[in-house]
Specification:
About 35% of the residues lie in helices and about 30% in strands. It is of the alpha+beta class. About 20% of the residues are buried.
Length: about 375
Amino acid sequence: MTLLIGKVYAQVPSAVLPPPPQIVNVETSGNDNYFKKKYNLKHHEDRIKLYLKPVANEGKKVDYYFGIDKKQLFQETKIVWKKVSGPTFKFDVLLPGDYVIFVKYQEEGQPMSESVSFEIQIERPWWRTWWFWGASFISLFGMFYGRERFLKFWADEEQRHMRQIVELELRTLQLQMNPHFIFNALNSIQSYVMTHDALTANNYLSKFAHLIRMFLDSSRSKYTSLNEEIRMLTLYIEMECLRFEDKFDFEITVDSDVNKYLEIPTMILQPFVENAINHGLRYKRVKGHLSLRFYLEGNYLICRMVDNGVGRKNSKEIQSGTQKGYRSQGLKITEERLNTYNKINDTNIIFLIKDNIEHPATPNEDVGTVVKVKFPIN
């Protein structure tokens, strides 16, 4: 078989060319079809066989030619010609697409005949059509999108349940502060009533009732304003000053650029103040001093508490020498509350405790304590 490739040139006038061959049958995948100018075939009807009426050659050799032109967008048409020796030939497995089939012949010693042509359109299988791929893409996209939404839904649900659990834990820790705080206040009342006259005790009880009302009001919510927290701290420190008979004085200052209506977690600062009084200032031989300052530092609200008490080390030694040492649970509960609060609110409230005098001149010097609590401002 010989291959001839070339472009379609202008034909010689039909008057001098032999007539085109006659197609008598077009067989598609074993099915006979009468000749017509166009065939629409399914994707599995891809084997085509042509039957031509033999040319009366009177003993002369006749060569038959057929060409295939596959229609393609944006590409130049080029016909591939093949020569066969007989009037029957077939096409093996044509891919889906549009084709034009050309047939002609040449008798020995004669010019090439005119060509006859017909069109074949082989449909694409359904799994290769644009609508199938489009539907598949949409379906896959919908599946992945639905899967992501489903996973996100369950992740959100799990996070919501975890948040509820942690909030209950935080609420439990806050409720633990209630009896702790009230117990300490009642101890103060008991100590004062047993050693003072009824008039002073009545004044102390009035302050205590006011403080308990403020405490109960604030304990109903997780947050309180800075202004309310300062009012409660002031009343608490005044009561402790009365209980310890003015063994210390105090001051609370708020910088002018601090918004007093900023919200902070309820009852966070009171255990630090209680710790400074009961572990540091109460053991001083001379009058002590407690200062609280609220100021801004970058994106943080800072509460800095400074006392000139005996210090943490000396306080432990003094308590270990008593028959019944004072064991405060306030700081432990506060630390647990802060860890839980930071977890559920994705924030970072931290506190630092250190000695006020880091290098004392003598081992028994009152070094005092500095507490720094940092609240992020959102």
